[in-house]
């Protein structure tokens, strides 16, 4: 299992999440749509918030569809292009039909990155 950083930050300055990456080599050959959220939820993944509703569902062994009836932070697989690309959205669920997207993460060849938001893209130009 490895966690890696791309880019260099000065001491005392918090890391920019857009400069981080994470992967677990043991999982990469077996990643698929049915286990990618489990992979993303590994404790060593700095992008995963363990206070999310996904953890409650996992600990109580509930059906993952129960997430729609909960409110709060959750992660959801929103896109995939097997076997190399998966996109996971971090969102705040307000009701069964209303969510606010907070961040998106993409997994390319097993390596997780945070996708930049529009402001970051525009500011980089």
Automatic annotation (TrEMBL):
Superkingdom field: Eukaryota
Q: Which GO terms describe its cellular component?
A: mediator complex
Which Pfam families does this chain map to?
A: Med6
Alphabetically sorted, this entry's keywords are: Activator, Nucleus, Transcription, Transcription regulation
Output one GO MF annotation.
transcription coregulator activity
Family annotation (InterPro entries): Mediator_Med6 (IPR007018), Mediator_Med6_sf (IPR038566)
Q: Where in the cell is it found?
A: Nucleus
GO biological process terms, semicolon-separated:
regulation of transcription by RNA polymerase II
- What PANTHER family has UniProt attached to this entry? MED-6-RELATED
Protein family per UniProt: Belongs to the Mediator complex subunit 6 family.
Described by its record, this protein's role is as follows: Component of the Mediator complex, a coactivator involved in the regulated transcription of nearly all RNA polymerase II-dependent genes. Mediator functions as a bridge to convey information from gene-specific regulatory proteins to the basal RNA polymerase II transcription machinery. Mediator is recruited to promoters by direct interactions with regulatory proteins and serves as a scaffold for the assembly of a functional preinitiation complex with RNA polymerase II and the general transcription factors.
Assembly, in brief, is:
Component of the Mediator complex.
**Protein name, as recorded:** Mediator of RNA polymerase II transcription subunit 6
Q: Which gene encodes it?
A: MED6
């Amino acid at each position: 299992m490895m966690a890696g950083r791309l880019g260099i930050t000065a001491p005392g300055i918090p890391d920019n999440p857009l400069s981080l990456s994470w992967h677990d080599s043991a999982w990469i050959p077996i990643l698929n749509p049915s286990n990618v959220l489990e992979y993303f939820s590994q404790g060593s993944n700095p992008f995963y918030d363990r206070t999310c509703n996904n953890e409650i569902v996992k600990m109580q062994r509930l059906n993952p569809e129960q997430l729609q009836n909960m409110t709060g932070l959750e992660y959801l697989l929103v896109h995939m292009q097997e076997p190399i690309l998966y996109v996971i959205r971090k969102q705040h669920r307000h009701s069964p039909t209303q969510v606010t997207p907070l961040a998106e993460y993409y997994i390319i060849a097993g390596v997780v990155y945070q996708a930049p938001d529009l402001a970051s893209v525009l500011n980089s130009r």
